[in-house]
Design a protein that fits this description.
Length: 267
């Protein structure tokens, strides 16, 4: 007994089923999804990678779920963004359309699309690598979050206590707490600031750069406390003013350089 194949509900098309990514190894592939059924539908699209292509390389730009009136066609764009260090090669994926109310029945597969990732070329001396962006993001993030510490220090009332020893212990505890809070906020702010700045400028490896910065900062800060800041014991204002630059600049550059070296073998 033969089985009657259900009529397609959607058609999924793309201008080209073979795409070569640009030299920055990022790209976007457009698709058109058309409702060819006899009724209005609400559906979503999803990317289905072939074996060997990790799902996190692909994402749908914008809203993946839309309403489809009878005969309506909707445009979707799939962003291909493989991580740094991925070897050159050809990978495949497709875009599928799935009905919301009846996903098992209202389902159509798109054509297989081949994506070619070109080999990495050694960057030129003038090629932006994200060092300045990392440094600027780290400085802005660290300084912005430390405004909280400045406000707490300026609004602190040191005269509202009873007894010399009670006031002394309270002041010591408060300022120690403020120092640790300031360093913690600077660490978090610098890491987030660097990662966000790199992402905004569309540099690769923004998450890993932020993670490396968070790891390097405590080690570098300890080294600075044992060397540079020891020389500034009698100049607290200079030490406070220079600390964001001294504590953030070198770890930020080292973090970015480490990511580039690990992922691309070039700094």
């Amino acid at each position: 007994m033969s089985t009657v194949k259900a009529a397609p509900v959607f058609t999924v098309t793309t201008p080209s089923v073979s795409v070569t990514l640009a030299s920055n190894r990022m790209g976007e592939v457009p698709f058109t999804v058309t409702n060819v059924s006899d009724r209005a539908l609400r559906a979503r699209v999803r990317v289905t990678p072939a074996q060997g292509a990790p799902p996190d390389w692909f994402s749908v730009v914008g809203d993946a779920e839309q309403d489809f009136e009878l005969g309506a066609a909707r445009q979707f764009v799939v962003r291909v963004d493989p991580p740094l260090g991925v070897p050159a090669g050809t990978y495949a994926f497709r875009l599928d359309a799935v009905g919301i109310e009846h996903p098992d029945d209202d389902y159509s597969e798109g054509p297989s699309c081949q994506v070619t990732i070109p080999a990495s070329k050694p960057p030129k001396l003038t090629t932006p690598r994200g060092y300045l962006t990392t440094l600027a993001g780290a400085l802005i993030g660290g300084i912005v979050l430390n405004i909280i510490v400045v406000v707490l220090g300026l609004t602190h009332d040191s005269g509202n206590c009873d007894g010399f020893w009670n006031c002394l212990f309270r002041e010591i505890f408060f300022w120690l707490f403020l120092i640790f809070l300031g360093f913690g906020l600077m660490l978090v702010g610098a890491s987030l600031g660097a990662a966000i700045a790199l992402r905004i400028r569309r540099f690769r490896g923004h998450k890993l750069t932020g993670l490396f910065l968070a790891i390097l900062m405590p080690l570098w800060s300890l080294l600075m406390l044992l060397t540079v800041f020891r020389l500034l014991d009698h100049h607290p204002i200079v030490a406070a003013a220079a600390s964001p630059v001294v504590l953030l600049a070198v770890p930020a550059v080292l973090a970015r350089g480490s990511v580039l070296l690990i992922r691309t073998h070039h700094i």
